[in-house]
């Protein structure tokens, strides 16, 4: 990346960060948080559950798509008492719900690339694009982003990073922790 491209990206990120406080209301109304599980069970979900329990003013719903559904995953998710409900299968959350946020735990290259290109042919991409179309806030947990191996061609890495930039331009947030949802900072 050239210095100009890096500078442009930094400016864009700064603008997004400055506008974050306007995206989530700081009022006392309960916000719906749909947590979309995009993978089989990971032990890191235990710390996610701890972080979810610290959120104020959120009603949490777990969403387990058919592609990753396993009885063990559902059982472990239901073992966390912070859920208002657990949706399994193709039961998509209602993207038109006011004060709702979609939290995608897995930012796969498939999800990132298809969303950037407007392709909606999987439950994740359908939900994410539907949220965009309805003006509903969507965020991706950075820890769930796929890592590069270091062996990819530079052009490929650049393209994937361009897709990340497009998602930021769409208003899709990328957060380090669900704790960032507290206080309306996303």
How many domains? The number is 1
Largest sheet, if any? 6 strands, parallel
Which residue ranges are poorly predicted, with pLDDT under 50 across at least 5 consecutive positions?
Answer: 17-27
Largest sheet, order of strands side by side?
A: 3-2-1-4-5-6
Assigned CATH class: Alpha Beta
Describe this structure in words.
This protein is of the alpha/beta class and 186 residues long. The chain has one domain (30-83, 93-184): 3-Layer(aba) Sandwich (Rossmann fold). The chain is built from six helices and six strands, in the order H-E-H-E-H-E-E-H-H-E-H-E. Helix 2 (44-52) links the parallel strand 1 and strand 2. Helix 4 (109-117) crosses helix 6 (154-170). Residues 17-27 have low confidence and may be disordered.
Which descriptors would you attach to this protein?
6 strands, Rossmann fold, six-stranded parallel beta sheet, single chain, alpha/beta, about 190 residues
Which helices and strands occur, and which strands form pairs?
Layout (H helix, E strand, L loop, with lengths): L2 H21 L7 E6 L7 H9 L5 E7 L6 H8 L4 E6 L11 E5 L4 H9 L5 H12 L2 E5 L12 H17 L2 E3 L11
Parallel strand pairs: 1-2, 1-4, 2-3, 4-5, 5-6
Give a summary of the structure in a few sentences:
The protein is an alpha/beta fold and 186 residues long. It has six helices and six strands; from the N terminus they run αβαβαββααβαβ. The protein has one domain: Rossmann fold, CATH 3.40.50.1950.
């Amino acid at each position: 990346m050239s210095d100009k491209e890096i500078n442009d990206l930094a400016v864009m990120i700064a603008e997004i960060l400055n506008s974050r406080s306007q995206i989530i209301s700081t009022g006392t109304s309960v916000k719906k948080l749909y947590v979309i599980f995009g993978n089989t069970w990971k032990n890191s979900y235990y710390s996610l559950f701890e972080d979810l329990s610290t959120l104020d003013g959120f009603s949490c719903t777990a969403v387990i798509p058919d592609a990753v559904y396993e009885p063990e995953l559902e059982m472990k998710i239901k073992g966390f008492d912070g859920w208002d409900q657990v949706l399994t299968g193709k039961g998509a959350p209602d993207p038109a719900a006011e004060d709702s946020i979609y939290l995608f735990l897995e930012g796969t290259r498939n999800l990132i690339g298809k969303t950037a290109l407007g392709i909606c042919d999987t439950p994740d991409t359908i939900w994410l694009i539907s949220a965009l179309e309805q003006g509903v806030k969507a965020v991706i947990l950075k820890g769930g982003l796929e890592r590069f191996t270091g062996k990819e061609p530079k052009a490929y890495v650049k393209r994937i990073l361009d897709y990340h930039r497009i998602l930021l331009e769409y208003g899709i947030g990328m957060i380090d922790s669900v704790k960032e949802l507290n206080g309306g900072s996303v």
